[in-house]
């Protein structure tokens, strides 16, 4: 019996985290020949995840350049993937979410009339420039895809509203929950020793990430100034911020927060360390998309320092609150969760809308059941 040849393509740390459990599920299935190609749109942060989940790519395009532009990424992926597709001739490629790797790999497959499966399909903010360029990457990938694996009912509806045939959309939950449940441990000992010295019991520890392109510049300065004000006013609060490797982010972070007592600026963490940091933290402040899905599984309130979210299910469920990038509002909403137990418990105890840890299993089944009818 001929096996289904599936080429999985990803290039960034968030993609790798979310695709890792799916890669493992594909490898275990005796009806599938699994091939993995990484673009290394992010190099170091991608490699961390590959080590944790013991994934050895069959192809590594290694496209990352210092201060790379979106055009650099697009051209590098398009040319590199072309060679892989010519050699392997897969039955379908799987891409994830909203990165430039995702859109460009889907485009390359379309050029060769190879089917595309889009994992984490259907997320929308309705603003083409927020998040940038992710919102447009999602929509363009949806146009090119043959199978759409939507995490939630809301995502399914978005795709239907854009004219996607419902028979090609599958509600699966989000694979990030699969990954998260594999690595969080109750008595975890951090690889980064500085984290083992943090008093998670007696301090209110805020885990923070901030890196998005649309926040760089004045919005990011205001976010950091808000954090500075919160910490200065309350000695019980400490902030752990693994600073993104982007030079633009690091310059602002170290300038505004570098000498602030109670703020720990550390290097990017491996996924195991970061997942367990979230689990031990009191709350989370982020401009990330993926953390809006992970934190609810751990019962952690999350404040999103963006003006929109493509994950309205989490807002509706009460686990996520979008607070924008205005300094005063960030300070107000953070203090509310730090000081008001009722507010905190309402968010911490809300129900996670993103799944049960079996998303990868559902995607594999949908592939095998439906590839023949496309």
TrEMBL record:
Protein name as annotated: UDP-N-acetylglucosamine 2-epimerase (non-hydrolyzing)
One function term, GO molecular function aspect: UDP-N-acetylglucosamine 2-epimerase activity
UniProt similarity note: Belongs to the UDP-N-acetylglucosamine 2-epimerase family.
EC number per UniProt: 5.1.3.14
Top-tier EC class: isomerase
Organism: Alkaliphilus serpentinus
PANTHER family attached to this UniProt entry: UDP-N-ACETYLGLUCOSAMINE 2-EPIMERASE
Keyword field: Isomerase
